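Worked example

This section walks through a single chain of length 507. The input is the sequence exactly as stored; nothing has been trimmed or padded.
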Amino acid sequence: MCIFAYLNYHVPRTRREILETLIKGLQRLEYRGYDSAGVGLDGGNDKDWEANAGKIHIIKQTGKVKALDEEVHSKCLPFLLSLVSGLNIPCFSHKHEFPEKSWFFQNLKYIVGNRKNSKTTTKLLELGIEELEGAFALVFKSVHYPGQAVGTRRGSPLLIGVRSEHKLSTDHIPILYRTACCLLGKDKKGSCNLSRVDSTTCLFPVEEKAVEYYFASDASAVIEHTNRVIFLEDDDVAAVVDGRLSIHRVKRTAGDHPGRAVQTLQMELQQIMKGNFSSFMQKEIFEQPESVVNTMRGRVNFDDYTARLGLDREGARGFTVPAGSGGPWGVSTLRLGFPSPADLIKEVLSMDDEIQKLATELYHQKSVLIMGRGYHYATCLEGALKIKEITYMHSEGILAGELKHGPLALVDKLMPVIMIIMRDHTYAKCQNALQQVIARQGRPVVICDKEDIETIKNNKRTIKVPHSVDCLQGILSVIPLQLLPVLSPPSLQVDFPRNLAKSVTVE
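Given that input, the structure is written out below as tokens.
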């Protein structure tokens, strides 16, 4: 499940524009693999908007966001719900009923390990923060507090985008802590015990000018609107009231940072667009030359083959090594043995026509075995995972040194086999495994070094990749295995594999 919510304070927008903002926000999150969507609307339809201004109308729809778009025509608070339980649950908006018809609607993403009933509205957030177990992200909205929203998270991501043409009061929001035993309750004298919210403890546009806030689970949903965001941390409670944003916590713990900074996203809209590619997965694969260079930028000097080792301090939460890309490889501290990694990756990517022929042949098979040793065992596992996820074909990554412990029984002339053999310390042993497969009438496709004349000469089918140092060779040898499922027949939903979600919501 993922969240997208929008609050508008004094910014001229038609209801149609607001609707488009919300639907577009959901569509930006849809790539994560969701199968249903719902919205909570302020008021009713256009004809009775004023009469229903104090109500929240719920609309839900199974399938893609496009189906929901056809149903919704008003301002809304949307969320996506992934049916990971396998149950076809028709209800998508979540309404909590309390005494005196105090209704709260929550936009949520969660994995909870317990259940708790709240008896008063004032206890709702306290129970959610102190008593809930597991991971969750929540955004609350009440009919009694129009134009207001409260969000919190634990484990699951939640950020707040801020958009205003005017100067903001601060770029660092201080954390407010409760002063007594109840977060939203009252003390014995009947007074509220929350820390005071004033101009020094919240974020707002100077002179109370227009501002818009976006709650989202992913930066991709807000980047086309703003690049200024606040990332909430576990157990933060963010409240937006009358255009002012404040952040609270239930209790103070050692090591807590005193505030949350307004950060600038280093992201561009084109990064979340497919462009000329058929799928996001294909785009990410072909962006790898730039991704690897970005990872090494500022850390590796190719002129004298030296590397800059070190960690960057980010905030007060710990030391990190920024990868500089969304790719799966971090090579920031390795001494490289080749001058142009981006060119080598481009050389492998240029073989997509050859790999597509192999993908077409494998498409009608029911199973495939991928074998390798040493550094390339992990490559085999990754390749097998991608093939089974995208093509729904049974695939196994097998350690070539363990063929006689069972896997060799699967090999015959009909079983597709892919082997990775590179000139490293396992080369001789991989050649032995290759002969074992051939002796059982196997017809393996060998991914090998383009300079390995012996392997190329002795095998009918090879995929030749450039040479690199052994510890980095996997960056090149994994690319053909990445391309195989992507180049399969277009009937497959590469970006939306069945039964899977990019954002995992089960434990």
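What to look for: The longest helix spans residues 376-391.
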